Amino acid sequence: MIKLKHLIREELLNPGNLPTPPSEITDILRMSNTSAFRNRIIVHLEGGTLDGWYEYNEGYHPGEGEWEHLMYSDDEEEQESIIFDQDAIEGSENDKEAKVWKKWLIDTSKKPGYAYKVKEVYLGEV
């Protein structure tokens, strides 16, 4: 019985999924970026099965967005460089939109069913 409880807890701590952003969060990104070139969030997470880089792309129509794991190379150092160079906007971690997303992701990571550590959040270009 103890082993079963342990397995259930482990599953809750490492579900391997990312939360669906509410419209208030995606609207902030969409409204502040009048062109479609900055409608992405690039996130660097660590922890269990979610370790790595992800993007949330809102697309051209509200409500179409989804998370996608970003992976360009098997070499971890090269991968981080490529992801940043091709996708993230340098310095955008200090923009209001990125800070709102980071706070939301951190708050959500503390809820049951989610477990990850948010390392970095950037605005991204398409």
The DSSP helix count reads: 4
Low-pLDDT runs: 4-15
Any idea what the shape is? globular
**Secondary structure: helix percent:** 25-40%
Global Rg: 16 Å
What's the short story on this structure?
The chain has helices spanning 2-13, 23-32, 76-86, 96-109; strands spanning 40-46, 52-57, 66-70, 117-124. By secondary structure, the chain is of the alpha+beta class. The protein has one domain.
Could you characterize the architecture of this molecule?
The N and C termini lie far apart (50 Å). A hairpin with a 5-residue loop joins strand 1 (40-46) and strand 2. It is built from four helices and four strands; from the N terminus they run H-H-E-E-E-H-H-E. Helix 2 (23-32) runs antiparallel to helix 4. A four-stranded antiparallel sheet has the order 3-2-1-4, with helices on one face. The longest helix has 14 residues, at 96-109. The chain is of the alpha+beta class and 126 residues long. The protein has one domain (2-124). Helices cover 37% and strands 21% of the residues.
